[in-house]
Amino acid sequence: MTTPRLVPLSPTTWAWTHDSTAWGYSNCGLVASDGEALLMDTQFTLEGTRELLAAIAGAVPDATITTVVNSHQNGDHTWGNELVGDAEIITSEASAAHRCHEMTPEMLSALSRGEPATAVAAYAVEHFGGFDFGGITLTGPTRTFTGSLELTVGRTAVRLLDLGAGHSAGDVALHVPEDGVVFTGDALFRGGHMIVWSGSLSSCVTACDTLLATGATTFVPGHGELTDRAGLTHFRDELSRIFETATAYAREGRELDEAARLVKAAHAGDLAHPERLFTAVAGAYQEAGVPGVPSTTFELVEGMARLAAAA
């Protein structure tokens, strides 16, 4: 079990964080001012989202959540949307377009609670079998944007940044300029390796540069502990090194699984889920023009499961 908490960052901003690097436990952001509130992402389950909303009600009892921003369409950031369905739900056009490609709660529940007859099923049971996805009604965005979008929450100005493809096919960050805070979504991971669903590892590096260019000093990752500019810079630089190593293997003609094992040996470090490096290597291989690189969610999970089993 994880113990989440609502951490105040300023008089108007809070971070919902977990003490776990396990799959599915995502961070959220809150901006509240003059009776209005904006929520950055919801949780994987209805129970988790209710716990989040109860904490928000305790911290800002007079504020109404009028806006929800989804950083991307993965279920651990959106499957609680229905509990704030009266709010305007905003994401980027690229993020919204990817929604139809996501696994549904019913599909993930069946996979993670069935017999682990395959490597993918065993991986799903291990990492998602403890979640209850019952009762979820998928609730999508009601507004989209491209580039950037300026909003106000009460008297607090916020800016949404369309980061494009990176972790997912469309990532969004939330910048609160007066507080020097950015809620990054899964453009940033702390304590665990990043997952690259988009097929572009270099875009993940570029997204980090965009986040640094805001001038913010506090960054709330999609998963893991809060960090500063030095932490984000270290994350970006390690992604760059992985990209260079994987690209070199692609040019040498090494098989993807072999390259993933080599990258894992060199770059796993002490971070959780080193098998996720398969997705980073696959992204680099796809950018290098290697044919037949896995790209679907199922194929990438299958590759992660193989890399985990190879340890």
Describe the structure.
The chain has helices at 46-59, 75-78, 93-97, 105-113, 119-128, 201-213, 229-252, 256-267, 277-287, 297-309; strands at 5-8, 13-17, 28-33, 36-40, 64-69, 88-92, 143-145, 148-153, 156-164, 171-176, 181-189, 218-223. It is α/β, with parallel strands linked by helices. The strands form two sheets. The protein has a seven-stranded mixed β-sheet. It starts with a strand and ends with a helix. 49% of the residues are buried.
Quick structural summary:
With 311 residues, the protein is an alpha/beta fold. It contains ten helices and twelve strands.
- Low-confidence parts lasting 5 or more residues at pLDDT below 50? none
Amount of beta strand: 15-25%
Give the count of helical stretches. Answer: 10
Biggest beta sheet summary: 7 strands, mixed
Q: What order do the helices and strands follow?
A: EEEEHEHEHHHEEEEEHEHHHH
Secondary-structure content class: alpha/beta
Task: Please state the average pLDDT score.
Answer: 96
- Whole-Å distance between the termini? 25 Å
Rg, Å, rounded: 19 Å
Largest beta sheet: strand ordering: 1-2-3-4-5-6-7
Shape: globular
Roughly how much helix do the residues carry, as a percent range? 25-40%
- Would you report the number of β strands? 12
List descriptors.
311 residues; alpha/beta; 7-stranded mixed β-sheet; 37% helix
Give the secondary structure arrangement, pairings included.
Layout: E1 5-8, E2 13-17, E3 28-33, E4 36-40, H1 46-59, E5 64-69, H2 75-78, E6 88-92, H3 93-97, H4 105-113, H5 119-128, E7 143-145, E8 148-153, E9 156-164, E10 171-176, E11 181-189, H6 201-213, E12 218-223, H7 229-252, H8 256-267, H9 277-287, H10 297-309
Parallel strand pairs: 4-5, 5-6, 6-7, 11-12
Antiparallel strand pairs: 1-2, 2-3, 3-4, 8-9, 9-10, 10-11
